[in-house]
Design goal:
The structure is a homodimer of 429-residue chains.
Chain A lengths: L5 E7 L3 H12 L1 H8 L2 E8 L16 E2 L2 H6 L3 E4 L7 H11 L2 E4 L2 H18 L3 E2 L11 H7 L5 E7 L2 H13 L3 H11 L7 H4 L2 H14 L10 E2 L7 H9 L2 E12 L2 E12 L11 E8 L3 E8 L3 H21 L21 E11 L4 H11 L4 E7 L6 E8 L2 E2 H13 L3 E11 L2
Parallel strand pairs in A: 1-2, 1-4, 2-3, 4-5, 5-6, 8-10, 10-17
Antiparallel strand pairs in A: 7-9, 7-11, 9-10, 11-12, 13-15, 13-16, 13-17, 14-15
Chain lengths: 429, 429
Amino acid sequence: MSGEKSLKVALLGCGTVGAQVARILIEDSGALAARSGASLELTGIAVRNLEAKRDVQLDQQLFTTDANALIDGADVVIELLGGMEPAGEYISRALARGASVITGNKALIAARGAELNALAAASGAQLRYEAAVAGAIPILRPIADSLAGDHITKVMGIVNGTTNFILDAMDTTGAAFDDVLAEAQALGYAEADPTADVGGHDAAAKAAILASLAFHTTVSSDQVHTEGITEVTAADVSAAAAAGYVIKLLAIAEKSEQGISVRVYPALVNRNHPLATVHGAFNAVFVQAQNAGDLMFYGAGAGGNATASAVMGDVVAVTRQLAAGAPLPNGSADAAASLMDFSAITTRYWIGLTVSDEPGVLARIAAIFGEHGVSIESMNQQAALPDAAAQLRILTHQGTEAALSSTVAALTALDAVDSVLSVMRVEGN
Amino acid sequence: MSGEKSLKVALLGCGTVGAQVARILIEDSGALAARSGASLELTGIAVRNLEAKRDVQLDQQLFTTDANALIDGADVVIELLGGMEPAGEYISRALARGASVITGNKALIAARGAELNALAAASGAQLRYEAAVAGAIPILRPIADSLAGDHITKVMGIVNGTTNFILDAMDTTGAAFDDVLAEAQALGYAEADPTADVGGHDAAAKAAILASLAFHTTVSSDQVHTEGITEVTAADVSAAAAAGYVIKLLAIAEKSEQGISVRVYPALVNRNHPLATVHGAFNAVFVQAQNAGDLMFYGAGAGGNATASAVMGDVVAVTRQLAAGAPLPNGSADAAASLMDFSAITTRYWIGLTVSDEPGVLARIAAIFGEHGVSIESMNQQAALPDAAAQLRILTHQGTEAALSSTVAALTALDAVDSVLSVMRVEGN
């Protein structure tokens, strides 16, 4: 089968993932040809600095700094540079020429996915980006293809390994956020500047991509309500644990009669929920569909080999279509999404307060919930502190974000409330 | 988009799954056309007995007993009759005509998959059967497509909901197999004749399909080493629990340098393993691949709606290819698999014995393991029974099935061994 057709493959970038993709393209060429119906020739690897690649165990002749020339001679372009530019310029150039593109660039797809998909559709090229979300886990294709005959109502994912590593370590060891972050940085699980991860921005890009595919629309990352984990305290984690919950940073895309909501925030997840069992830097995506019910996809969210597996799955998919001679149209998207206002989403709150330990306080607090139409599922008073303030943890039933946040505002204004320890949402019932 | 092309769909069978598929084809025709690029017209539903369908909430005009006429007028045939015949005859007829076929018929695919795939390839038709394994969980396409650029080394699945319901209930309640089976039958989780489930035969068919796709070969269900769960006792379950394990019926397909092994048996799974968290009638498939590492796919394994979701995903896939005008070739299979002899597979044993409570017994038992080249990971002696026999639970390190089973034979022959309580394998490290 391998002699039938030969396709020229250009690789842009040779970092952790790129080096593995190059290795697989070379070492595994026989199996790839058998699986895809065409042989793949790696024609070159575009890098910024040739000197920096002297130690890489690949034929040095492959490296070039002229990305444009490489792109212009390719049938398939694999972009693994990351970042907005020049990656965006290169991908546009390839698609405009009719070359198919595989990328793992979540930031770019989340910001400019609609434009790039349109460019691909116009030239008959394919654009695939399985590696952009949840590393090795096959999740975009199951959502876009396997569930295409169903209606997805909710996608809820642990899609950032760094923050899951941190939250899991806080849960396991009781340590504080800053200490665990430092440990994660020492182990290589967190970057020197961890803002994109701990601030929730990386998860927001992935949430935008998941929402776009799940709901056949276009959501960009700046439409995603985003909260990070920097304010999660050791006390939050241990109080959640005592109540049977674990705190996870969730990327949520939800479709209801009220509309589409896409959001990222740390939330309490019941320990019985499948997402609660996701430890360390692993990722998992929980999907609810009208007919399929609850599904979960679990695996490694990062790492050179794991991410390369997702890239190579896309390479085989693109090659099969090119070998068959009639590429499928890219999935049709309905109109761009107009998202629900965040204040209209429905969620549950878990509120930690310190209150004066005096008669009538609980009644006054309960009254405030009632006034805002929020009902309480449970209220736990912990041992009074030495200064005679008692600690309360209140779990609400479902309410709108607006009702819940105005409840918290009213509680904060109450004389009997000394301080609001934490306000966190609860997901996954 | 829906006006572009119209395809005639024939449905064979109108049971739990078929009725849901018919409902979705009718109610959801707009969304299906938008997703797939062609409109789908349900032209008829072949049933054995028209009278039996009088109460079904579908246009009675759709029902026919003439399956062949329906097939001969169809572009796409959905077979949901189950069983070997007449399902096999109908599918062959459709594929020979060039009509594409979607089926959930695991027994038929596991027995005659290679022949039917060849028939499809010859006529340019598509044959898809995502619903045959693990209900709603997208697992066959991720294995065949998403992981096509990787090398799968092991697939290990809980693919039979009935047996997982039974084993989970035994684990949770401590009840005996027969009592839980009766309860499962009362709840509709087990059939009146539960042989196919509790004997492991249903799981064996699924293991054969998983192995064929994962290893690009042909494995039929009669090649699968199959053991059921009828001999799992409440004592096994509680002793396993005490040691930190849970007993699951696993369908295992493994590829090593020694060859391919496909097997179904109840095995101990460590409670930290993702498969241990699969409760009730849920299914999950754990996949190990060279680059992707460990993946798990989790969801509902049965039920009309859930299985219909998988069927409809295949319907959209087939329709997209037909709308694009150039179907992809079905995945290429290498030569039919010659499987490893079961005695050559490597596993770990967990052995329960009652032994005379007298000096030197443990040394004699340990010596037998040494003589067979099997090393012991742990040996736990439980409180001596009233009749002065002690109960031993021995966990071995890795050994071949041949070495492990001859160790058990030698133990059985030993005077000091009163009885072998149980022998079970341990999987998933």
